[in-house]
Amino acid sequence: MTTTKELAVNSVRPQLTLIPPDAEQFSVYGGADTTEAARQWAINGRYLLCDGLPRCAHGLYMMESCPAQCSRLRFHDHPNLWVSGDRSCGGAFLLTHPYAKTLDRAGRDYASSHGLDVMVDYPGDRWYGSGTIAVRMSVPPGWPMWPIEQEAAVLLASQPIEWQSLWSARW
Length: 171
Prior knowledge:
By secondary structure, the protein is α+β, with helices and mostly antiparallel strands.
């Protein structure tokens, strides 16, 4: 007989953790200035940093690991998965900051093959630093909720974020 504890340990489903911008665990690749820029961007956009999943399109599907070694792709610099803390502001997306002037064909093909929309330098996303572009690969609007969005909705329903208090604390 299997106990509940054993089921949790043996689960093949990855554990999604949503990190609010004011949490100690909130961290992106780069120095303190980069993390602070990301924090301000996340507060203003009501974005939560995702942890516990692959930092590629496969994380949006809640896959345990990346089967394709996406981290080796040229456009996949400094990636993070994000979800909206407010469903009216959009869904889930992958944000990368490659050192490039444009997104190459391989990057666009990657997004297309995973069913993602692509936006380069979406307003506000270019917080990483000079010499990088911001590439947002997002779940298209109007689609049914993707696995990461379903999981995030459950987490946010049980542990809502008080965005107004975050803005007040920062300003």
